[in-house]
């Protein structure tokens, strides 16, 4: 009964409008093809969860189950069962599936992080993982985050120290980022290959330094013939985020390089302008809704921006702390003001 009521609330409140349907009606008016969300297969059995995801969104990413630790928990043995559940959910609901990710310093199995592997051994491990995963999902993923979060948070924004960074320049004559992208292109020449990171969305304000570093890294990859098709701007930010103009400018400069941009992991924690002392209120919910809409508008307006995606979709299941209300649907799968604002933005485009 509870599930039925929840389902009725969703349809009742929104009429037949959903992000995916409204985006479809826009057709060629925008190059933005997807409004997406990260999902976790652990909640698919909850009809409110899977129903909201499949009704509203036309792209999903696995929150965790396609990461290195999920797929190659044991060295040399590949387990796609959890990642497959998300890919099949996408297929069954005519949604696109976005792969996340094949190379990161986090969410790695202990055999990898504690293995004390030599540089040539790590090159083999990386190439084998990237190749096996990309080949397995050949033709089934619209994009892969080949490398995630490689850049340090402070000047000079070198590559972060992690397991993969033990691959030395001498060994590969470049670095592990290049190794991963080259392996990915070889494994599936048709897959769109993305570099994905956080605090890199705006080329202005506090994120300018890391944003410029990422832009320079990606440009250098292109200059050196390393295959890359797009960049993911995560955007774990807050309701007080005020660098939207810089986000547009940043997306445009990637477009000028011939790259696609995906907003990949957007969530807006309840925050006061310069801090995180959240006081959730109608006003705050409105502010959040308006910001979601403004960012969506920026994506729709920017030719390079083809995917607008949040990290989860319901406050019931967010990686962020309880009480931060970061996502468009509330804990009960009811629409927050963000849903209406985003639908208005799409419908009015
Ligand atoms: C997070 C998941 O949401 C959590 O469940 C997990 O414990 C850690 O990873 N940047 C990324 C995502 O690229 O993979 C992260 O996902 C959030 C930050």
Automatic annotation (TrEMBL):
The keyword Ubl conjugation does not apply. Its EC number is 3.2.1.8. Residues 1-15 form the signal peptide. It comes from the Eukaryota. SMART domains: Glyco_10. GO terms for biological process: xylan catabolic process. InterPro entries: GH, GH10, GH10_AS, GH10_dom. Residues 20-345 form the GH10 domain. It catalyses: Endohydrolysis of (1->4)-beta-D-xylosidic linkages in xylans. One of its GO terms (molecular function) is endo-1,4-beta-xylanase activity. The active site is at 265 (nucleophile). Belongs to the glycosyl hydrolase 10 (cellulase F) family. PANTHER family: BETA-XYLANASE, GLYCOSYL HYDROLASE. This is endo-1,4-beta-xylanase. It comes from Triparma laevis f. longispina.
